[in-house]
Amino acid sequence: MTATPKQVFDSVERTQESFEPMTETTRAVTMDKIAALSKRRGIVYPGSDIYGGLANTWDYGPLGAELKRNVKNLWWSTFVHRRRNIVGLDAGILMHPRVWEASGHVQNFNDPLVDCKTCRSRFRADHLIEERLGQKAEGKSPTEMSAILREANLRCPNCGNPTLTDARQFNMMFRTMIGPLEETGTEVFLRPETAQAMFVQYKNVVATGRVKVPFGIAQIGKAFRNEITPGNFIFRLLEFEQMEIEYFVKPEEGDSAFEAWLSDMRGWLRMIGVGEDHVRIREHDRDELSHYSSRTVDFEYEFPGSMGWRELYGLANRTDFDLGQHQQFSGEDLTYFDQAEDRRYLPHVIEPTFGVDRTCLVLLIDAYDEEQTVDVNGKPDTRVVLRLHPRVAPYKAAILPLMKKPELAEVARRLFDRLGEEIEVLVDYDESGNIGRRYRRQDEVGTPFCITVDFDSLEDHSVTVRHRDDMRQERLRIADVPEWLAEQLR
Ligand code: GAP
After folding, report:
1. Which of residues 321, 336, 364 is at a domain's end?
2. What pLDDT shows up at residue 26?
3. Are 431 and 404 contacting, i.e. CB atoms less than 8 angstroms apart?
4. Does residue 227 line the site of ligand 1, with CB under 6 A?
5. What is the pTM of this model?
6. Is the CB of 314 under 6 A from ligand 1?
7. What is the pLDDT of residue 2?
8. Smallest CA separation from ligand 1 atom 17, residue
9. CB pairs under 8 A, 24+ apart, for 79-85?
10. How confident is the model at residue 231 (pLDDT cuts 50, 70, 90)?
11. Is residue 475 predicted with pLDDT exceeding 70?
């Protein structure tokens, strides 16, 4: 069965949002523009840049670090602080190697790999079959994939020679050693998902966390995968962050909890301001399901250019697979005693999983816009603007004294300090250069409001607030600005 992807917000009631509507009509965005803007404005830099870079590693710069932090804080407050039955966990990256045997990762966390004997390029066999031959590769074994590639006489996409090897399984977990000597050390893995710690610590949380089924454990943290074909900027990384919830329910309540989470995940996307036009949900076919899942739905985003629809988030029904496996491998009783029903069972688990880096990437892409305007000299000009939701924007406002004069700086600095103290948000302060250019710089990094202190401010104790999205300007009393800004961010 191939399910038809469905627009994600179809069945969700539209709500009145307080933020400005998107004005985008055509998509000006490309991945190259996002990568260039990110580097230019300190959002994301190539990793180890001064050493020539290390392929497929990226570092978040000053504004990227703020964007990422905003995403994680918002997620944590939405799903942990504001839910009475979800508690947090912050586990280590290194875990007992048996964890990964029990979870099935040692056995199953493989990608089918093909090498070119001539140019030594590496490819994923399933990607070659899908992208070069237009056939389905899901659920096929390496032997079946090799047969398809051989029959099609596929040449190496890099050098063009008919020298591709057969497909073989390649485990994607990174390995390292604990101990001073490699020969005597213990081999451990860098976790490929944050999820397993939530299963491994489930018994401690039940014993100490005052939780009752249904309840969830949430975690935000790094995960590592030795991807064969990383790339597309920060879409597929070797090292990335996940925000995951393992939601423990009665065995018979998995289906209804799954539907509830589907709706909550849609709500999250709307809350961070991701436009509904480029999001859809896709049900996994049976032969595509991970080894632990009885049902999986992907939230897909339509990336620009040749990337097209790709996974943004996932929602899986992991049944009692993980608790059952850890019970067997650890020898610990992981059943739950349900006092209200006077029965014991292994809870089933619904898992909503969100990639932090993909969230940041989608926010940047979705927010990117170009507007044709005229510059101060009346010449045609392009305004690049990131229409980020104020909740996630790195700077919530920028304070711009009209000119670099001590009397303006004094008023502006006082307002800057008040905003920091009273509403504790990050505000930029910029007094250098032409005001038009300063506005454009703030537009490019998604600052929703520019607050200009001019000579009139000294007399009327007011400032001009310029709105990023429509460049509308209004005059506000300085005394009212903190309360007004807090209201805009709510
Ligand atoms: N615990 C389930 C799990 O890990 P997954 O679909 O493999 O499921 C969850 O990963 C999410 O993590 C994905 O939806 C994606 O957002 C993010 N993710 C996975 N692999 C990634 C990679 N190589 N680079 C960046 N993000 C990745």
Report:
1. 364
2. 67
3. yes
4. yes
5. 0.91
6. yes
7. 34
8. 355
9. 79/216, 79/218, 79/243, 79/245, 80/218, 83/216, 85/211, 85/212, 85/214, 85/215, 85/216
10. confident
11. yes
